[in-house]
Each structure stands twice: as C-alpha cells, then as structure tokens.
Design brief:
128 residues, two-stranded antiparallel ribbon, 2 strands, elongated
Length: 128
C-alpha cells in the first residue's frame, strides 16, 4: 500500500542514518530534542517522538547530565530567620547592607568545596 513517501522501513532507515550522523557530529552528546532540532534546521520534517523511537531501537543515546546532589536539608523544627532587608538588596551608603551566599562546587572524587561570599549591597563589591 503506497504511503506517499515511499516504503516506511526505507524512510526509517534513511532517517536513522541522518540521526546517527547528527549524533556523531555532536560528539555523541545530543539527545532526541537536539537531534530533532538539528534535523528540522536541515529541512527534514520530523516528529520528536519518531526520532526518540528510532534512537531507542538503534541504541543511540545522548549524554545524560549528572544528578544534582542535595547538599542542604533544612530542619523543619528550626526557627525561621527573619528577612531584615525585606528582599531589598540595595543600600544608600557603604556598609549599609551586606548580603551573602553559599554554594557548593563539585570536585574530583564526588566531593564538594564550599564557597561562601559576602557582598556590600551599596558598591556590589566582594568583601570576603
């Protein structure tokens, strides 16, 4: 039975070749969404679900990002810290308001470094 665009198996095989090419050109990092976007940018009319199906059938996988680790678990019984600045991070004079932040940077071996900063709300300069 004619489908209007040739034999479905042949069309899938041709599309699979193009998917493999885009995947290889990306350093084997692109997943179905990016591959679909690349194919569409190249003039191929294709549905993301079809690309997903063909990638799954032919074991073509994009690179998955590592999971984020939860580094802070708040104590529900702890007293809430009052917002003294009321979300207004500006100051009218130097040293009028300091704001700080803590972030965790991943390092080798699955460990983290803690980076804590203090910034002056007036000059926006790093204090420490």
């Amino acid at each position: 039975m004619p489908t209007g665009c040739g034999e479905p198996a042949a069309a899938d095989a041709a599309l699979t070749r193009r998917i493999r090419k885009v995947h290889a050109e990306s350093g084997k990092t692109y997943g179905a969404k990016r591959i679909t976007a690349e194919l569409r940018a190249g003039g191929v009319v294709v549905n993301r679900k079809r690309v997903e199906r063909l990638m799954r059938q032919h074991a073509v996988q994009g690179r998955r990002l590592k999971r984020r680790h939860r580094t802070t678990i708040p104590d529900p019984a702890a007293q809430a810290v009052p917002d003294l600045l009321r979300r207004n991070f500006t100051a009218s004079a130097p040293n009028g308001a300091w704001v700080g932040d803590i972030t965790y940077l991943p390092i080798a071996g699955g460990k983290f470094l803690c980076l804590a900063t203090v910034i002056d709300g007036y000059s926006r300069r790093l204090l420490g």
